[in-house]
Amino acid sequence: MHSNLFESESNVRSYCRNFPVLLKTARNSVIQSSSGMEYIDFLAGAGSLNYGHNHPKLKSALLDYIGNDNITQSLDLYTEAKAAFIDTFVGTILAPRGLDYKLQFTGPTGTNAVEAALKLARLAKRRPTIGAFSNAFHGMSLGALAASGNADKRAGAGMPLGNVTFFPYDGYMGPNVDTVEYIERQLNDPSSGIAKPAAFIVETVQGEGGINIASFEWLRRLCAMARRNDILVIVDDIQAGCGRTGRFFSFEVAEIKPDIVCLSKSLGGYGLPLSLVLIAPELDIWKPGQHNGTFRGNNLGFVAATTALSFWSDETFKASLQQRVSQLHAWLESQVRRYGKERVRVRARGLIAGIEFHRDDIAAAVSAEAFERRVIVETCGARDQVLKFLPPLTIESDIFEEGLDRVAYAIDKIISKTGN
Ligand SMILES: *Cc1c(COP(=O)(O)O)cnc(C)c1O
Question: CDD domains of this UniProt entry (predicted)?
Answer without folding.
Answer: OAT_like
